[in-house]
């Protein structure tokens, strides 16, 4: 399940120990292309872009 969200404040930068996420962080969408990621991320971004009102 994927959700759309808007950051309104605060900080996020969690390193999980023994969990399923090794690091969680807010970042700008233009930074995603430079990161190693699973194919689901690209599919989700493509679907999100197609669903956005223009």
Helices and strands in order:
Layout lengths: L12 E2 L9 E2 L3 H4 L6 H13 L3
Rg over CA atoms: 13 Å
Which class best fits the helix and strand makeup? mainly alpha
Straight-line distance between termini: 24 Å
Strand order of the largest sheet: 1-2
User: What is the global morphology?
Assistant: globular
- Strand tally, please? 2
**What sequence of helices (H) and strands (E) makes up the elements?**
EEHH
pLDDT averaged over residues: 78
| Approximate strand percentage | 5-15%
What would you say this structure looks like, in words?
- The chain is mainly α and 54 residues long.
- The chain has a domain at 27-54.
- Helix content is 31%, strand content 7%.
- It has helices at residues 29-32, 39-51, and strands at 13-14, 24-25.
- It has a two-stranded antiparallel ribbon.
- It is globular and about 40 Å long.
Give short descriptive properties of this protein.
single chain; mainly alpha; 54 residues; 31% helix; 2 strands; two-stranded antiparallel ribbon
Task: Describe what is shown at a glance.
The chain has 54 residues and is mainly alpha-helical.
